[in-house]
C-alpha cells in the first residue's frame, strides 16, 4: 500500500515556508505530516496532505516547484523497541531507508511513520510478512 507524498522545494529565506503553508491553508488542505530538510540556500518540505492533487496544483500555480513521491506509512507500536523492530525487518532483507519522519495518531496510541525506501515494493512485502500495519491513503485520513 503505497502513499503519495509531495515535496516542495523552498528557498531558505524568511517567509517562504509560511507562504507555502498559507497557500495550502487557504485551500483547506490539511497537513497530516511534514518534514523539512534544508541547506543554506534551499529546503525540501515533505508533506502528507489530505488532497495531493489539489495541493500540487495550487502550489504550482503559486510558483512552487513540487514533486510527488511514493512512500509507505506504517503504524508503529509506541514503545521503546517499536521503530527498531520495524527497521529490523527491513534491515534483515537489506532494504535501505532513504528517509523517515513520523506523526502521532489521533485515532490510536501508536506512532505513524512515513518512510521512503530504496525498494518500496519489496519493503511492503517484507513488512506485510511480519504483520506490520501498513496504512492506505484512506487510513491516513482517519489518523
TrEMBL record:
SUPFAM superfamilies: ACT-like. Residues 71-143 form the ACT domain. It comes from the Archaea. InterPro entries: ACT-like_dom_sf, ACT_dom, ACT_dom_pair. This is ACT domain-containing protein. It comes from Candidatus Methanobinarius endosymbioticus.
Amino acid at each position: 500500500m503505497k502513499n503519495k507524498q509531495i515535496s516542495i522545494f523552498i528557498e531558505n529565506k524568511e517567509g517562504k515556508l509560511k507562504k507555502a503553508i498559507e497557500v495550502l491553508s487557504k485551500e483547506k488542505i490539511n497537513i497530516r505530516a511534514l518534514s523539512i530538510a534544508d541547506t543554506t540556500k534551499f529546503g525540501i518540505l515533505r508533506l502528507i496532505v489530505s488532497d495531493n492533487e489539489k495541493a500540487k496544483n495550487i502550489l504550482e500555480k503559486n510558483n512552487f516547484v513540487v514533486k510527488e513521491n511514493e512512500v509507505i506509512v506504517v503504524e508503529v507500536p509506541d514503545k521503546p523497541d517499536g521503530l527498531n523492530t520495524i527497521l529490523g525487518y527491513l534491515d534483515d532483507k537489506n532494504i535501505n531507508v532513504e528517509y523517515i519522519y513520523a506523526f502521532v495518531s489521533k485515532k490510536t496510541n501508536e506512532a505513524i511513520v512515513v518512510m521512503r525506501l530504496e525498494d518500496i515494493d519489496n519493503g511492503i512485502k517484507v513488512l506485510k510478512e511480519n504483520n506490520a500495519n501498513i496504512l492506505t491513503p484512506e487510513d491516513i485520513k482517519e489518523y
